[in-house]
């Protein structure tokens, strides 16, 4: 059975690029464009992994990650950002179990490795 990934980003193009790439890697992928929509999709889809941008309208990626962990403490979440100042905050979040990468990320190496490591329950080291 394919692993399921929910990609959450308010920028349509980014969400679709990541989704298409992950689908080609053999994952079953759904997209949401904000945190509230992501919670709704999550209820129906029950993904193995959620990859979420941080800066989004209605609900930030941090708020989404925390809401998901309240619903399922074992939910795997990867956060992403295109803002260098947030990368420092994200580094601190790793201790709370939220690995991250900065956009634009090299899909073939960085994203593939982080996704595979998180799904396998391994600690991530390459951001």
Structure commentary:
The structure is a single chain. With 127 residues, this protein is an alpha/beta fold. It has a single domain, classed as Rossmann fold (3-Layer(aba) Sandwich). It has 5 helices and 5 strands. The chain has helices at 12-24, 35-45, 61-71, 84-93, 107-119; strands at residues 4-8, 28-32, 49-53, 76-81, 100-102. The protein has a 5-stranded parallel beta sheet, sandwiched between helices. The longest helix has 13 residues, at 12-24. 31% of the residues are buried.
SS-based class = alpha/beta
CATH superfamily: Response regulator
- Secondary structure: number of strands: 5
End-to-end C-alpha gap: 28 Å
Total domain units: 1
Poorly predicted residue ranges? none
**In the CATH hierarchy, what is the class?**
Alpha Beta
Number of helical segments? 5
Q: What spatial form do the alpha-carbon principal axes imply?
A: globular
- The arrangement of helices and strands along the chain is EHEHEHEHEH
| CATH architecture term | 3-Layer(aba) Sandwich
Strand order in space, largest sheet: 2-1-3-4-5
Overview in brief:
46% of the residues lie in helices and 19% in strands.
What characteristics describe this protein?
single chain; 127 residues; alpha/beta; Rossmann fold; 5 helices; 46% helix; globular
